[in-house]
Specification:
Length: 259
């Protein structure tokens, strides 16, 4: 059961996290509540009001409350994982208001993110983290979608795999990619088309989780500082994961488990 809006389900996950039931954790909470591409609603979370704007439109109040529940659950889950010294990495779209970030987007500087909300809750002053920002297009996607990974210090082997990924078109001053805002000519949400991870991202996440698990199990034997082989030359990540007891992906967006 994964419906964390049910108190019993949320509590079950928090208890497992606090009791070190996982060798490592990858958290991918719904990002739609903070989505900068939603043209059918106003921002419900902003940089100045990261925990929720006051007096949102009545028709969006329940939606905002679900977003607040997500923030609270992710905060509590990370604190629980940290208390049990379980390595963790969380994923969500990158902040758009930081001028020194490759994800800076002038049109969306007021839109808040999960990271702004967690910072407002004081998470990053309590839990030391490592982080990286990267674009999906560097992993083969036809759209840019800047994303951020934030993890525990012990999850550096995973986070490190995403360092140095850049948007080639941006570096060349080219702007040809589809902008993930609004709806396409068929009336479908452009942001929903980018809800799934690129295949290469899944490969890196699986490889990173296995490296983190190996480093945690045998830190003196793990060679986590070595640079990974290029994806084109590396063994199939699915075979690599399978041999280590991992189940990789599914047709559902953001689905990836290690058993």
């Amino acid at each position: 059961e994964e419906n964390i809006f049910r108190p019993d389900v949320a509590q079950s996950w928090l208890q497992q996290a606090a009791s070190a039931s996982f060798s490592c954790a990858f958290l991918s909470s719904p990002c739609k509540y903070f989505c900068v591409g939603a043209e059918d609603r106003p921002p419900l979370f902003t940089v100045s009001k990261p925990l929720g704007v006051k007096s949102p439109p009545p028709e969006w109040l329940a939606y905002q409350q679900r977003g607040i529940a997500i923030i609270d659950f992710v905060f509590d889950l990370i604190v629980a994982l940290d208390s049990s010294r379980t390595p963790w990495v969380a994923e969500n779209p990158a902040q758009r208001h930081l001028k020194d970030s490759p994800a800076f987007w002038r049109e969306c500087v007021e839109w808040g993110t999960l990271w702004d909300a967690l910072e407002a809750r004081g998470l990053f002053s309590k839990v030391p983290t490592v982080r990286v920002v990267f674009p999906y297009c560097a992993l083969g996607a036809p759209y840019q979608k800047y994303t951020m990974l934030v993890g525990s210090l012990s999850a550096e082997p995973l986070v490190a795999l995403f360092r140095g990924l850049v948007c080639r078109e941006r570096s060349l001053g080219i702007r040809r990619q589809v902008q993930l805002r609004g709806f396409d000519e068929r009336g479908e949400s452009r942001t929903s088309q980018a809800s799934g991870y690129p295949a290469r991202m899944i490969e890196l996440v699986v490889r990173g989780l296995l490296a983190v698990r190996a480093a945690t199990a045998a830190p003196t034997a793990a060679r986590v500082s070595e640079s990974p082989a290029p994806l084109e030359c590396a063994p199939c990540a699915e075979e690599e994961a399978s041999s280590a007891g991992a189940t990789m992906g599914s047709s559902a967006a953001h689905q990836l488990t290690l058993s």
